[in-house]
Amino acid sequence: YRSDEARTATYRLLDRVRRHPAVALAQPNHRFQLAEVGVTPQDPLYSQQWHLPAIGMPQAWANAGGGSSAVKIAILDTGRSSMDHPDLVGRWSPLEYNAAVPGSAATERNHYNHGVHVAGIVGAATHNNIGIAGICYNCTLLNVKVTHQGTGVIETAHFLDGLRW
Fold first, then answer.
1. How far apart, in whole angstroms, are the C-alpha atoms of residue 19 and residue 39?
2. Which residue in 101, 122, 135, 144 is a FRET match for 55, CA 20 to 30 A apart?
3. Terminus-to-terminus CA distance in the chain, angstroms?
4. Handedness of CA 39, 43, 44, 45 (dihedral sign)
5. Stretch among 3-12, 19-28, 36-45 having the lowest mean pLDDT
């Protein structure tokens, strides 16, 4: 619709047509534009990310880009690694929360890097010729550690506390 007035006028007319006794069905004729061109990231491991084309990410990127840094996505998981992953440098908000030990760093110093893996799927830097492509590669990631240090154990209370944060 070109304006709210046009939308309102269309639905008023549609309502009148629907009430006519000779009309069995009436609906608006919506117009959609299919995305003909997708975006193919130049990240070397993109070809192994079979799930991105399967969920239509190339077309979504063509239509909406890689999101906005104003959009914050919380990663409730094992916390970020104490070492920076090259695809996640600059992607994290400085705000973070450790639900298992509030007031402590929300990093994982041991071998449980599931949170880094998930963060990469969600928000890895893209078009940088490094690693993989992230779904919302311009979004800001929030690190929320919900596991006990070095154990991979999650308690419901910690998960819910992280979600509330």
1. 46
2. 144
3. 40
4. negative
5. 36-45
Please give the model's pTM, rounded to 2 decimal places. 0.72
Are the C-beta atoms of 109 and 62 separated by less than 8 Å?
Answer: no
Length of the chain: 165
